[in-house]
Write a sequence for this structure.
């Protein structure tokens, strides 16, 4: 599964890929939720922006709901508000801070020490719970917005942003997602917004320790000039594969 390299049989064609994904979304909804709406967590970054734009083209803007989920004050929420306005899709702002705070406080009161990993992953899982609550209320299906590059190294939260009902970008690297965004005529501020974790103030690339450009080249061409970077990518890929697989279960 996901063996390097994921070399494409033909050169990547952003225009064709955009059209193919739009048709794939239409077909998926015809089979798995005819008449249902797409529900998308909106961060204002490339992945949620491109996913929302693809769904709007595939289903019509009236069948796409964007959900903005700040945790208290979010310094860059303006991007999310501008995106939903640009696409003309309906949206809701649901602040998850009180929910996260209450849960963490209850955990602490039970004498469990909350680790930094729990503090990072829990808001992502609460956001996904929020998306499914909205979807259940609006006859919706939840879009997963992860791309191939993130999935490759496990840069997602299991049952958080790694969850969803359909995944339009899962076969596209970060480089390819940006190219599709340009085909969708998205403003560059959405396709090229520097992704960050929203907690530490660090970018995704800071947290990973390598650039998406280096990762994408390794995925598509099997080439990584820096031995330490290659080792790190291979290790992250190996230990995070469980996020992409069905839950193992004992069988009689």
């Amino acid at each position: 599964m996901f063996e390097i390299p994921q070399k494409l049989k033909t050169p990547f064609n952003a225009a064709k890929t955009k059209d193919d994904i739009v048709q794939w979304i239409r077909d998926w909804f015809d089979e798995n939720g005819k008449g249902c709406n797409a529900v998308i967590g909106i961060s204002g970054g490339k992945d949620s922006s491109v996913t929302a734009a693809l769904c709007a083209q595939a289903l019509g803007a009236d069948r796409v709901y964007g959900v903005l989920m700040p945790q208290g004050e979010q310094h860059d929420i303006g991007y999310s508000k501008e995106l939903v306005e640009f696409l003309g899709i309906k949206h809701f702002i649901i602040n998850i801070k009180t929910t996260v705070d209450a849960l963490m406080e209850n955990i602490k009161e039970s004498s469990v020490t909350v680790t930094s990993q729990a503090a990072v992953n829990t808001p992502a899982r609460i956001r996904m719970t929020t998306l499914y609550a909205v979807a259940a209320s609006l006859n919706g299906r939840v879009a997963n917005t992860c791309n191939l590059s993130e999935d490759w190294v496990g840069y997602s939260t299991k049952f958080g942003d790694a969850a969803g009902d359909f995944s339009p970008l899962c076969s596209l690297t970060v480089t390819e997602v940006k190219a599709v965004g340009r085909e969708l005529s998205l403003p560059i501020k959405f396709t090229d917004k520097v992704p960050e974790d929203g907690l530490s103030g660090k970018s995704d690339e800071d947290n990973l320790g390598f650039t998406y450009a280096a990762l994408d080249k390794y995925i598509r061409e099997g080439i990584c000039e820096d031995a330490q970077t290659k080792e790190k990518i291979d290790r992250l890929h190996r230990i995070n594969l469980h996020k992409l697989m069905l839950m193992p279960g004992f069988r009689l």
Observations:
- Residues 96 and 202 are 21 Å apart (CA to CA).
- Residues 14-244 form a domain with the Rossmann fold fold (CATH 3.40.50.620).
- The mean pLDDT is 94.
